[in-house]
Structure formats: structure tokens, C-alpha cells
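request received
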Amino acid sequence: AQSVTQPDIHITVSEGASLELRCNYSYGATPYLFWYVQSPGQGLQLLLKYFSGDTLVQGIKGFEAEFKRSQSSFNLRKPSVHWSDAAEYFCAVGEGTGNTPLVFGKGTRLSVIA
Amino acid sequence: NAGVTQTPKFRVLKTGQSMTLLCAQDMNHEYMYWYRQDPGMGLRLIHYSVGEGTTAKGEVPDGYNVSRLKKQNFLLGLESAAPSQTSVYFCASSLTGVGNQPQHFGDGTRLSIL
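response:
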């Protein structure tokens, strides 16, 4: 069965600084990978997804993520963080076969300071 | 497009009371899911449905029941509410259950059990 680890529970960055949120997955085959964002009081919104092909994927709101098979990672990045990016971020992995629900990480809370 | 709509948005119950949370989606999705979100625990899957009339247990199904009588609706029931069920509940849907299908989330229901 697949699993996801987000090592950082909480990260604080300054506005305008770069951001990298870590995600490590465990799955035997090529996984389907997702990043979601949850703003306070709201549901999860899909930021980006990786299925195959180019290992660097672009998403909404200026985010990107890079799939590294050798490191079993799918880290989320943004060159310059805005105060509105403060939210909780979830990484998720899907199986390539079968009909098993996505597995979500426990999330990383991002705080942005002036 | 409404997407995924959850009703109600807030509810306070007394221990032992029963209630039903309603989830409706207008995207003609086959799969629907109920999660609970608690601080530090991430999203935990309660039950999910692979199609009209078919449901399956997730990670934390005890104390909950579900029904999917119509394709667009997925109901989550608490027969005898307990304080441990105080949480934020999220409904989600996906076109199919294949791992490359992202889930679309509602805005959540905040439930407090006194």
C-alpha cells in the first residue's frame, strides 16, 4: 500500500522568500502525485498533479513541484511567497492500478511573516 | 458550477443525538468520500462510495454509517454522537477511483458534540 510523509508540521517564511515543502512517498510503481492547499475555513483545492513525463510540473498560484524517483520525493516550491499563501498544504499519492482512494499526508502548515 | 456542496456548515449536538450530513456533487462523479480532519491528524477517510448503492469502509469507520441512494448524493450518519466525533468533516468526489483522478472537496462541516 502506498504512503505519504510530510516531514515538516509547520514552516514559517518571510514574505518574498522562497519556499520548499517536502513530500516523500512510498509506492512500488510509478505513483500519481498531487499537492493540495487548504486555506483557513475552506476545503482542499488542487494545486498541481504529476502523472508521467516531465518531472517538473507547474500548478496554480505560481507553485511548481518536482518528482524525483530516486529520492521518492515530490517537493513543492514557490520562488517568492505572498502573505496569501499562508495555509495548510497536503501531498497525496494515488495508485497506478485498482480503485484505491488517494492517500494523504498529514499536512504542513505554512505561516508567512512580514 | 457548485462542485461539491456540504450541508450543514456548522452544527452543535449533544452526546447521544443523531444527525446526518449531506454531500451533493454536480459533476457526475462515480466516487465519493467522507473524511474527518482533526489537528495533527491530517485527513482520515471514514467511508467512501464507488458508485450508486455501493459503499466501503475507510480508515476510521466506527460510529458512522453512510448511504448513496442517488449518484449525486452521499450521506454520512452519526447514530449516537460522541464527543470524540467532534471534528471538521469533508466530503470529496472523483470521476473514477483510478489513482490519477484528483478529488474535489467541499468546504466542510464543523461538528461539535457536547
